[in-house]
Amino acid sequence: MQKMADQTIREAVTDLGMQTQIGAILEALGPIQGLEVIDVGCGEGENPRRLASAGARVSGFDPFIDGMDWTASGTGRFRLVQASAHALPVDDRSADTVLFIFSLHHVPQPKMAAALAEARRTLKPSGRLLVAEPLARGPSHYVSAPFHDETAVRAAAAAALNDDAAPHFETRQILSYTDRRHWDSFDSYAERMIRNMRFNGYTEEAVLAPEVRRRFDEMFSAGNGAFDQPVRIDLFSEPL
């Protein structure tokens, strides 16, 4: 009976409400001053910069970026390194926290298990793994689905967390938040999506398709320019 109660507590979802991406991550983690943080799939490094400003020492890894040496940001430091999720140039048990922020579903499905194993390899015995994944629903997903439907890869990422992460940690906490995104016009939305093409597999023509514009206009009117994106956070602690 106690075991069942404990499992129910672990699977309960804590709703963080309306948040920015970095705000939700920091609320989930708590104070990060002085921590060694790895950000896997960091893109151009926006989150490493912000996490460093909060006091962490952050290494951002992504296969599609140019590297950057250690740089001061606020009270912390960050660097960017070109590397894949399943082959991080990091010592064993050297990180306090490993993050996948909207990035696990970008790892090729056959390599997701290896990427999560690599994250565990780098974590200290007291370390934490945080994975934030946008859910395949809501206005943002509805608009982007014609040119970039990630339903299948997001489901694969969720399955990998259940199969290749959860059994290897002592505890698991599930949180959620809503990322409110504002767009002034379809043109500004399309411009941003086109800039993101280097990290994704769609084309400019697909972004500018009439159906995408129709869906954007529909959601723009319904939400007064707000395009909410529900997000789930899985926070694993104490690797086994």
The biggest sheet amounts to: 9 strands, mixed
Query: Widest sheet: strand order?
Result: 1-8-9-7-6-2-3-5-4
CATH architectural arrangement: 3-Layer(aba) Sandwich
Helical content, roughly? 25-40%
Spell out the helices and strands N to C.
HEHEHEEEEHEHHEHHHE
Which stretches of 5+ consecutive residues score pLDDT under 50?
A: 1-10
The beta-strand count equals 9
Write out the CATH superfamily name: Vaccinia Virus protein VP39
Tally of individual helices: 9
Question: Taking all residues together, what is the mean pLDDT?
Answer: 93
Question: Between the first and last Cα atoms, what is the distance in angstroms?
Answer: 24 Å
CATH topology: Rossmann fold
Number of domains: 1
Share of residues in strands: 25-35%
Coarse structural class:
alpha/beta
